[in-house]
Amino acid sequence: MVANSSETGKSSSRRTKRRADFDWPALRADLRGAIPDASLALVATALIYWLLYVRIESGTSATIKIMPMLEDADEFWMYWMCQAFGWSAMLWAYVTVVFGLLRSGPRPGGSWLSAARLEKWHRTTSLTTIGLMFMHAFFFFTEQIRTNQDQWSIGRSVWTAFVDVFVPGGYATGTGRVAILVGLLAFYLAIPLGFAFYLRHRTGSRVWLALHRFAIVVYILSAWHTLLYTTQGWFDGPFRIMLWVLQIPLAVLLLARLMAPARPSERLSSRGSRQRDSALPISARLFGRIAVVLTALALVAVVVTGVDGGRSPKDPPLAPWPEKWVIWAGLVLFVLAVGIAVLRVRSRSAAGATRTRDSEAGRPVDSDTT
Fold first, then answer.
1. CA of 232: how far to CAs of 147, 166, 200, 247, 308, in Å?
2. Entry pTM
3. Which end of the chain has fewer CB atoms surrounding its CB within 10 Å, N or C?
4. CA gap 187, 194 in Å, rounded
5. Cβ(220)–Cβ(196) below 8 Å
6. Which of 308, 310, 319, 176 is nearest to 235 (CA)?
7. From CA 192, how far away is CA 211, in angstroms rounded?
């Protein structure tokens, strides 16, 4: 009986540890908190769909000028729902980044913009954004199935649509060869980087913070996907310029966050233990600040010159750029950077724990590491 009791206690302890590895209570609370936010997102999506429909009916849709076969909005409603969810996902991603940058950098005074409130908004809008990204891909998937059935069986139609829409690099024609790959990488990176918060009890808060700093890449890929593939902003013109203009405030916010981060360990002037707590060495952090300054200047140059990557309706279609191998190489470098940052944080956390144990045991600690 004693043995059974001991085994039961060990089993219960293992179950408790597994539950603690993933912060389910926090996720459930954030999902409940995201209900109003997600409801607003669905309303915004419906309004965007209505606007797209009205433009189709009035003959002013830029998409119809490129793909006139889509002018029957009732028949191709799944395609237009895909478009509507794509724009609402982009809008929510924008808002999410703003909340995150305000939370981790300098922010306006006032209790209504407290750190706790900004963090809550950031987490709930992040969950909503991931949901909107999935719905964007899902409606493209269903539209692909409908289109494929004109020539293939239902089984082959579903499989081909799945490869085209959900397998990175699976879409093999036109601009989508690059644009859909970029969009899928944004979606698949958003999931682990977004949900890393709920694994912080297992990984440690420092590792989670190191991972979360790379989440800005998800937004960059999303914006890149939009500029490459949106038929509403395919050609040169005010709408495409507006998309570029909207990126300038984010670049300024990101620069402000890097120049005056809320966490002392991320400042360039950090020394001692604060310097050791940083996920990236000072050279990498300095390079990041320079890169953001250059990016902001490039955005301003795009807006001022009007050279925004679009084309005239009279010009022939441009070849997709860059080649897919460039995207894959960039992904490899990104994963390496994330891995190095995580290993750096873990090694410093382990060294800090060793120093703490030595200090508590009364053993001498090197003065240059305290």
1. 22, 23, 40, 17, 14
2. 0.89
3. N
4. 10
5. no
6. 310
7. 9
